[in-house]
Amino acid sequence: MKLIPEIQAAQSEIQGLRRTIHAHPELRYEETRTSELVASKLAEWGIEVHRGLGKTGVVGVLKRGNGTRSIGLRADMDALPIQELNTFDHRSHNDGKMHACGHDGHTAMLLGAAQYLAQHGQFDGTIVFIFQPAEEGGAGAKAMIKDGLFERFPVDAIFGIHNWPGMPAGFFGVTEGPIMASSNEFRIDISGIGSHAALPHNGRDPVFTAVQIANGLQSIITRNKKPLDTAVLSITQIHAGDAVNVVPNTAWLAGTVRTFTTQTLDLIEARLRKIAESTAEAYDCSVEVSFLRNYPPTVNSSAEAQFAAEVMREVVGDDRVDDKVEPTMGAEDFSFMLLEKPGCYAFLGNGDGGHRDAGHGVGPCMLHNASYDFNDQLLPVGSSYWVQLATKFLSQQ
Ligand SMILES: [Zn+2]
Ligand SMILES: [Zn+2]
Predict the structure, then answer these.
(1) Which pTM does this prediction carry?
(2) Does this entry carry the keyword Manganese (predicted)?
(3) How far is the CA of 100 from the centre of ligand 2 (A)?
(4) Which domains, from first to last, does the chain contain?
(5) How far does the centroid of ligand 1 lie from the alpha carbon of residue 283, in Å?
(6) pLDDT digits (tens, 9 = 90+) for 25-60
């Protein structure tokens, strides 16, 4: 590992920031304390601060020399509505809210890099530090873009990191092309005619129809989609009826669709609508379909992914970088930034939980688990990566 000595020396300071943020988790678009802390630290280090993008987002701008190149480094700041089970000192002080996705660590790693770059950075160009709100289902990245993020702070490329439990601590995973999936949700409302359960011929059964639709939808994955295109369709809810002897008037089912391309998603949505509508028609029921596209797929551009992998190898060594990491069907709103700019999203191993402090709750250190905690050993790794990435990127022609 080639970590930056000044960053290693600042470990306890950065860890202090991480634990303060962990202890005061804030949900999407409510990150006022966190953004205040971020803004005050950036200002303290002499970085130009802009606030209010995407409501609670913060942007720091650091410019040196006359270089025209610019790079965007992004961290997310929001927490989740989870009751934390850990009892260590930096546990959540906010009931029902918790940093269970490690965004406290992401924010701290980027702050660590910002401090170093402001105090010791040798580069020529502009570094834009982006602290975004509301990654967890609030599309905070999109909100910042809508508020003029890239018009006000143009960047040549944009980069992001997510900690990754299960991957050894300090290892990086990255890949060209899709690294995370699009996230979409659907709901199908079926209206029939209720009846006595013993006299079904008097009605039009929405429960039977819902089951036929549920079965039919899986044919999209096995019969319509090209086998080599990755996609998941999961029905996660089916609701109908209140009594064993009554066929109800209505039924509904809902679920999620994940894909790596918009073309596959277009196909799945069209087939889902057709199967729902034609199946309902076949059984004399009516149907209403809603299909919501939440986050697009996170797709890394080739040059930036290769560049990021090169920097990772310099920081942690060849044997700690997987540059063809298996993509995940999870989703991430950094995808909205990658629709605007070339760039790269990567995983940083959080370890298997061996870093647990005393007072760690039972259960694994997995993302969105009530016993999760960000691995502080990663702080100098992530910060060193950010510094090397920005410095090297700006030195390129
Ligand atoms: Zn999350
Ligand atoms: Zn996350």
Answers:
(1) 0.94
(2) yes
(3) 8
(4) 5-180+297-395 (3.40.630.10), 183-295 (3.30.70.360)
(5) 41
(6) 999 999 999 999 999 999 999 999 999 999 999 999
